[in-house]
Design a protein that fits this description.
mainly alpha; two-stranded antiparallel sheet; 19 helices
């Protein structure tokens, strides 16, 4: 067994640092995991094991080597393989993930509270785009509200799976609601529909009159025309760089870069080089091959969950991989890595419960399951 860290405290700190953007810890530490795996497995065995994850990025990089190729093309496969390495080698447990993310979420909510009481800070975000300029939402150590919301959602998934309704559950629920992020709130509703159908139905019925009465305000906050127009404008760079490139190699292999060139970004309304839409991201970075590989591996992942008889996780995975990503992609954010680790670990939870049940029955101590 490969073990990078033995102490639980060290593991929690390690995961907490991955969940932050300080000093690019969210990129550096997963890369170190891959370096450790290369040393442990050996380069040939590692490449054979994770060949399908790295093959398209490698092709995209070399096809565009003399163009706009960048090493950032490897962030996504590094995140995916690092999540699998941490899971497969029992380096981290679901408790480690829960504790690390709870620290992050708690600090994020606290900073947002301070911002609303004493003024803005670096770890909160003004909701002026939603028509609430004097209200600040938590962002914590994450690059965006949605990434912070996803970290809260991951904590909620863990708590609901383990029936743990203590501080991590409630602080994460507060964090999701405080983001005012549409995807995070929809994701939260999906979780309650899966795990707490009675509570979901009750909340749904209670919200109907509220939505009807305050529809104008709700529409302005969550469905403002300016927000929709901004999202369309943010896709202009990809239109120039990929969809209108008229280059067969770009269409097939992508641009080998997760960002558009500065020259192209300057032509757009917002002047931003990052690609926010997940569909644009996959095609722009990895081309048609990348999109096909992403879809294939995602379907294999879902089929594996079905074979493990954890069907309740399937709609959660489908929502995250094929719905949330196509609003604002998180492929190169730590939330993507944490989501994969969490689902990997939770997919084995029923098997571990069954093992504990057999031990408890043999020992005549059913209370071991609690």
């Amino acid at each position: 067994m490969m073990t990078f860290v033995k102490s639980r405290y060290v593991k929690v700190i390690f995961l907490f640092l991955i969940s932050t953007t300080f000093f690019s810890f969210d990129k550096i530490l997963p890369s170190l995991v891959i370096v450790g795996a290369l040393v442990y497995y050996g380069p040939l065995f590692f490449l054979k094991k994770y060949f399908f994850i790295f093959v398209v990025p490698i092709l995209s990089f070399f096809v565009n080597f003399l163009g706009q190729a960048s090493y950032n093309i490897f962030f996504l496969p590094v995140f995916v393989s690092a999540a699998h390495v941490l899971y497969e080698n029992d380096i981290v447990s679901i408790d480690d993930v829960l504790y690390a993310l709870t620290i992050n979420v708690t600090l994020g909510v606290a900073f947002a509270l301070f911002a609303n009481l004493f003024g803005p800070n670096l770890f909160s975000f003004s909701l002026w785009e939603k028509g609430l300029p004097d209200l600040y939402a938590p962002m914590g150590f994450s690059p965006t509200q949605q990434v912070f919301g996803t970290l809260c959602i991951i904590n909620l998934i863990i708590c609901l799976e383990r029936r743990l309704y203590s501080i991590p559950f409630w602080i994460s629920l507060v964090g999701v609601c405080a983001t005012f992020n549409r995807c995070s709130l929809l994701f939260c509703c999906l979780l309650f529909a899966i795990y707490k159908k009675g509570i979901f139905l009750m909340l749904f019925l209670c919200c109907i009159p509220i939505v009807v009465f305050f529809w104008g305000d709700i529409y302005d906050v969550f469905f403002s025309l300016s927000t929709l127009v901004s999202r369309a404008e943010l896709r202009e760079g990809v239109d120039f760089s990929y969809w209108h490139s008229n280059n067969i190699f770009v269409y097939v292999f992508g641009n080998g870069n997760i960002e558009t060139l500065d020259a192209i970004a300057r032509k757009t309304e917002w002047g931003r080089s990052n690609v926010e839409n997940g569909l644009d991201f996959l095609f722009h970075s990895y081309g048609i091959l990348g999109f096909v590989l992403y879809s294939f591996l995602s379907m294999c992942f879902i089929f594996t969950l079905y074979r493990k008889k954890v069907s309740r996780l399937i709609p959660i995975v489908l929502f995250y991989l094929f719905f949330e990503q196509f609003f604002t992609q998180e492929f190169v954010s730590s939330s993507f890595l944490f989501f994969l680790i969490t689902v990997f670990l939770l997919s084995d939870l029923d098997k571990k419960r069954f093992k504990l049940l057999r031990i408890a029955r043999k020992a005549g101590e059913v209370h071991l399951l609690k």
